[in-house]
Amino acid sequence: MAGLRGALIVLEGADRAGKSTQARRLVEALKERGYRTEGLRFPERTTEIGQLIGSYLEKKSNLEDHTIHLLFSANRWEQVPMIKEKLRSGITLVVDRYAFSGVAFTSSKENFDLHWCKQPDVGLPKPDLVLFLKVSPEVAATRGGFGNEIYETNSFQEKVAKRYAQLMDDKTVNWKLVDASQDIENVHRQLKELSEKAIDDAKDQPIGKLWE
Ligand SMILES: Nc1ncnc2c1ncn2[C@@H]1O[C@H](COP(=O)(O)OP(=O)(O)OP(=O)(O)O)[C@@H](O)[C@H]1O
Ligand SMILES: Cc1cn([C@H]2C[C@H](O)[C@@H](COP(=O)(O)O)O2)c(=O)[nH]c1=O
User: Fold this and answer.
1) Pick from 76, 99, 133, 193: CA 20 to 30 A from residue 68's CA?
2) Is residue 2 assigned to a domain?
3) What's the 101 CA to ligand 2 centre distance in angstroms?
């Protein structure tokens, strides 16, 4: 319907929680239900900034810790005009990782606090729903591919899980926690239900600003 906006739905969680699997399924399921829906993921590795990030994650280049944090944030900001345009035109966006990943991962490094890590992302379009896929580092480690990229170690992922828990204390963000150690279909059903409600709630609301 003209004038109604789409929802910004974010999937967050530790590496190998199943975010990409669920994001793909969610986009398809929402489309089947008649919602105009598109997927998006961060980091968006195809841009110039995204290529620097990809090279860092794949351990092909080294970047100073503040620098890589700011690049992750810049990689989100460069997509903001497109995100706003799509939401305003009624398209729902399902986003695989967002600013919460940025804060949870960088603040797990030594000498970084949550407050500093949030600042570059203050004012981004605020998600209408953040689906947190909770899985223990032990279960995540049994899933395919764990260990290829820079942050994929059990010890680092344990720190990341604690940072996410701190972020979820923020009640200004619409967090929904889902047990992602269940089978793919069960997780999917829950995400779809929560998403449909968020789309309905968001449709006549203005786009908010994150952490403002
Ligand atoms: N609920 C599940 N049960 C078992 N295996 C799963 C489940 N969800 C995803 N997987 C498998 O775990 C692996 C990682 O899934 P996926 O890439 O979706 O996770 P991710 O959270 O996007 O990971 P990353 O953040 O590291 O890219 C894949 O092999 C996928 O098939
Ligand atoms: C958005 C974002 C991501 N990260 C980290 C989290 C993961 O370890 C990788 C991305 O891997 P994926 O397989 O493409 O999901 O990057 C980060 O540290 N900061 C961020 O802002």
Assistant:
1) 133
2) no
3) 6
Question: What CATH number did the domain enclosing 131 receive?
Answer: 3.40.50.300
Residue 81 counted as domain residue: yes
Total-model pTM: 0.97
C-alpha dihedral sign at 127, 131, 136, 140 = negative
Domain count along the chain: 1
Interface predicted TM-score (ipTM) = 0.98
Residue 1: pLDDT band (50, 70, 90) is very low
Q: What Cα–Cα distance (Å) separates residue 43 from each residue in 23, 109, 142, 147? A: 14, 19, 24, 18
Q: Which ligand is nearest to the CA of 139?
A: 1
* For the CA of 53, the nearest ligand: 2
Q: Which domain holds residue 57?
A: 8-210
